[in-house]
Amino acid sequence: MKLLSTFRKDLILSFRSFYIYIEIVMAIIIVAVLLFVVPEEFSSENKIYLSMALPASARTSILAQVEDDDAVVILENAGEVKDALEKDRTATGLNLSMKDGKINYAFVLQGYEGEQLVNVLQQGFLADFASQMPDFVDQTKVTIMDPDAEKLNARIHLLPVFLVLNSAFLGLFIIASYVFLDKEQGTIKAFAVTTCRIEQYLLSKVGVLMLTGLITGLIMTLAVAGFRVRMLPFILLLLVSNAFGSVLGLFIASFFDSITKAMGWLYLVIISLSISSVSYFMPSFSPLFIRLLPSYPLLYAFRQVFLQQPDPRLLYGNIILFALLSILIFILASWRYKKTITI
C-alpha cells in the first residue's frame, strides 16, 4: 500500500512538472514527421534531366531505351536542363551531342558532388550503354541471402529507432531530473525518516516512467503502424525497455548531487546508445562495440513486433534479458541511494 500511495503521489506531481510533457510532445512530433515528411517507400533512383542535340536516328534510338525509365526526364536543350536542376537540387543533368560521328556526353552537376560520386555517375552511365550492346555479358553475380525476408515500409522501419530513443531512453534523463528535483526540495531527506523504504521510493519513480513510456510508445505505434503490431510482446518490450532506461538513469544520478553535474554523463550515455541506429540502417557495419550497446538488440527486438513471422527467440529473449538487467541495475541503484541518502 505504501508503494501504491507513493506511486499515485509521484504520478500527480509528474503531470504538474514539464518533464513528462517533453516525452509526450516528442512523440507527437515524431508521429507528424513519420506521417507527413517520411514517404512510405524510399527510392534510390536519382532523377536525370536529359537533353539531346543529336540526329533523328540517334535520338530515336536513345528515346527507345529510356522511354520506360521514370527517372529520366527528356528536355529540349541544355538551358532547360540547367533551369530544371536549379529547381531540383537532388537531380543530375546530362547533355548529349554529336561530333565527328561520335556521341559526346556531358554531365551537369549541382556542385556539391565529390570525385567519387562523379566517377560512380560516369561508370554507371557507361555501363548502362554497354549493356545495350549485342555481345554484352553481365559478369555481376548477385546472391540473395534471405529471399523470403519480410520488408517493412520506410515509416515502420524507422519506428523502432524512435521507440528506443524516445520511449525507452529519454526516460533516463527525465527520471534523473525528478530525483535531483527531490534533492533540491529536500524530499529525499524527509523520505529518509519515514517508514517507507528507499526501494519503494525508487520503484515509484520507475513506475511513473514506465507508464509514460507505454503511453508515448502506443501513441507513436498506433498512429504510424495501426494495429500491424503484435500487441502483447510489444507492450512487454515497451515496459522492460522503459524500466531499463529508468533504472539506468537512477544509477547514474546516484553519483551526483545536481542535474548540472550529471548532465554531461547523461547526454554521453544517450548519445552512445543512439550510435546503434547507424548499424540498424547499415547492417553491414556492426562492429563489436556497437553490438554490445543495449540499444542494439532493442532495435531489432522492436522491429520483430511488426513482422508477420517474428523470431520468438530474439523477441522474448530480449524481453527476459532486459527484465533481468533492470532488476540488477535497480539493486545497484538502491544500494547507492542508501549510501548517499544524506546528499
Folded structure, characterized:
The radius of gyration is 28 Å and the shape is elongated. The protein has 15 helices and 4 strands. It has helices at residues 2-16, 19-36, 56-66, 78-87, 115-130, 154-168, 170-185, 187-192, 198-225, 231-253, 259-274, 276-281, 288-291, 295-304, 312-339, and strands at 48-53, 72-75, 92-99, 102-108. The model has no long low-confidence stretch (mean pLDDT 84). Helices cover 65% and strands 7% of the residues. It has 343 residues and is an alpha/beta fold. Helix 7 packs antiparallel against helix 11. The chain starts with a helix and ends with a helix. Strands 2-1-3-4 form a 4-stranded mixed β-sheet. The protein folds into 2 domains: 2-39 and 153-339, no CATH class; 48-130, no CATH class.
Order of helices and strands: HHEHEHEEHHHHHHHHHHH
Categorize the overall geometry.
elongated
Main sheet overview: 4 strands, mixed
Low-confidence segments = none
Report the radius of gyration as a whole number of Å: 28 Å
Kindly estimate the percentage of residues that lie in beta strands according to DSSP: 5-15%
**Structural class designation:** alpha/beta
The pLDDT mean sits at: 84
Termini distance? 27 Å
| Spatial strand arrangement across the major sheet | 2-1-3-4
The number of helical segments is 15
Helical coverage, percent range: 55-70%
Count of spatially separate domains = 2
Q: How many beta strands in the DSSP annotation? A: 4
Outline:
By secondary structure, the chain is α/β, with parallel strands linked by helices.
